[in-house]
Amino acid sequence: MRVEGTRTFSAPRDTVWEVLNSPERMAKLMPGVESFDVKDDTHWRANVKIPLGLGGMRMTFDFTKLEERQPEFARLNAKGNGVGAIVSMDTAFDLAEGEGGGTDKKWQADVKIDGPVGAMGKRVLQPIVNQQVNNVLSALDRQVQEAAAA
Q1: Structure pTM?
Q2: Residue 5 has pLDDT above 80, yes or no
């Protein structure tokens, strides 16, 4: 399943880059993060409770930064394991200076979900993925605004 989009931030590109490349700040963007461990500059792990229907599904995600060109591009892989699902996600973003000192972000992610949860099919999973993406982008807006004000 592929999701992609664009977002404009009213903050300089360096500020947006700083937020997107800080594992600690990224942990605050993800819904349901229960714990977070930074191994080094390119590897970190998050224990997450993903809201699904009546309950939540607990998963462990390992993140690896695959490529970066500061302050304009980064590519990341995330692999998640939990009871009922195996998730693999490759994502990347491009940052460009926008009008009025803002930043334009173009992003895309390829998400693959295997196991019983993945068997629910794209029709069921797409709205859930879209909702989680919107939650992350809204949290990113808040983080960028906090960083710009600091």
Answers
A1: 0.85
A2: yes
